[in-house]
Every structure is written in C-alpha cells, then in structure tokens.
Amino acid sequence: MTLSQQIERGMEYTDFVALMEKQVADKSAGEMQAFVDLNAHRTRRLLKTHKPSDELLAAVRRIKRPQTWLVLTEPWCGDSAWSLPIISLLAESNPQITLRIVLRDENPDVMQLYLTDGKMSIPKFVAFAEDGQELFRWGPRPEQAGKLYQSLRAENLPHEEIEEKLHLWYGRDRGQAIEAELLALLNGL
User: What stretches of 9-32 show up as alpha helix (H) in DSSP?
Assistant: First the structure.
C-alpha cells in the first residue's frame, strides 16, 4: 500500500477522539490506561477552551488549494494531547484541509518515514499538497518543550517526574509555542 493510500485510510479527528473515549470507557489501553485517561481529559478541555490566534487562523485560511494534514500519534501520547486538538481546530477552519490521523503502532512503515533522531517520537504532523508533495513537518513537540525534555533527561530524573514537569510546562504555555511554530511553517509556504 502506498503512503497516500495509508493516509487516505487514516482516521478523521472525530474518530480518533471516539477511539480514545472508547479506551477510557472500556479500560482497554492496558498499561497505558492512565495516560489515555489523562489525555482524554486534556483533549476535552482544549477543544472547549482553546481559541487559535487570529493571526494563525488567517494563515490557515489563506490556504487556497487542497492539503492533507497527516498526524501520526496514539491515544496514550501526552504531547499529542496538547497539540492535536489545536491542529484539529485549525484544519476545521479551512475546507481545503483534510486531516487524517494514522496510528503509529499499527503503521510502523509510515512511522519509519518520519523518525525524529532515529526514534518513533510522536506526534508527527506532516502537511502535503494536492499532488502529494510534502510541504512541511512538525513534531513531536514544540522546540521549547523539547529543550526542557532533554535537560530533564540529562538530570537523570525518573520518567514520571520528567512527564510531570513537561506537562506543567504545556499547561502554562497554553498552546502558544505550538501556535508560533505552526504559524512560522504556514507563513513559509
């Protein structure tokens, strides 16, 4: 199957959220259950409260030709819980954009195309033009969050403490770093 076929078979955002909510309801996420539960809560909150900046919305609305936005992720991914709702809100603001979610663990061949430093880090957001040409990629997290993550790892902190500090940063940032980076990418098109 070609990459475009795999993307086309990807989920719509509402299907991804439904999958997450199903995993919350039936407790089917195994050892990742606590993460899925927390991410579902974050996702619900962001979808209700986050309003993309006017400048970012204007950049998205300037897209006049069809684009496909691919996000590789999983319901348990904490970084995704902070960025995917924002990406979804942006995609909804322009009918020229088709957002597709592809699960990393079910599509390792696709993930291999978008590794970060040789790792299967998610989320990975890739935009394609109508002809399949890649326009840009982003992820797995904003640059500031990536630097924080690396510095916390360098301190040899336990994973739980790293995650707590990283998500505290996300909460305080309120999507501003993600928006700034996405705006720069869109303005560069």
Answer: 13-26
